[in-house]
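Re: that chain you flagged

S.,

Sorry for the slow reply, it's been a week of failed gels. I finally had a moment to sit down with the sequence you sent. For the record, here it is as I used it:
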Amino acid sequence: MSDAMARAQRDPSITRPRRRHGAAPRRRLSWRRWLVGGGIAVTVAAGIGLVAWAGGPGVLAKRGVAACDRLLIAHGFAVRRVTFTGAQRTPAKAIARAAAIDGTRSILALDLDAIRARVEALPWVRRAAVTRLLPGTVRIDVEERHAIAVWQHKGRLWLIDEDGAPIMAARADAHPDLGLVVGAGANVAAAELRRMLGREQALAARVKAAVRVGERRWDLAFDSGTVVALPETAPDAAWRKLAAMQARHGLLDQGYGRLDLRQPGLLVARPAKAGPVRRQAAGNERAT
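Prediction finished late last night. Pasting the structure tokens below so you have them in one place:
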């Protein structure tokens, strides 16, 4: 220890040099100023909002809300950035238009539930979440629907999702990769049909349309012109049996107009042209 420091400790009249006022790092002061200013703004805004709420929906209330917003924006709570995640088919511009965040309201004054409802009204959006990231960012997370089929009903075509809900109108030739389901109730049953057909993919690739009959069962129209009637009960078993018979004997390519599998253990075949109806046990896979 130096002699000067030792004397300073022994002699109380010798004082240590004080840090000059205002010499704190500029960043720390800026952060404190932001906190103090923001706290004052929020407190005053809350007071104005309380007065506006108490005054009802009159002119005074509207002026109070506007003054509240201006104060919050002036103290750093303006919306400076809006981000989107999860959107593939929905353009960011469409989400921005639906959100309608134009910068005239402070971030604390935004009605997040109303923004979410407007975004979820977009055709491809299943769910949306809207989050404030203070002081000035709004994040919109989107979960989109997945189209599984085209639904034909009452002369119109619709893209439908896994729940059978219409997404948007469709053109007949716009979605060749999606199956066509037809009739009342076909949209609701389409997801289960899709799973069933997927178990025999080679045969499923030849299905051109699936017609819902009485909202109970399916008629499948194939590329050969043959229509196959599946039963109401255990259609998956009939589908597997049809795949086995097609693999062994090519039933769909023998000129039949209709193959009826509705009766367990029995196949009823009707020729495409006028001719006798052929019946055989489904277990006997010899083509006739």
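What I noticed first: Residues 26-76 form one domain.

Talk soon,
D.
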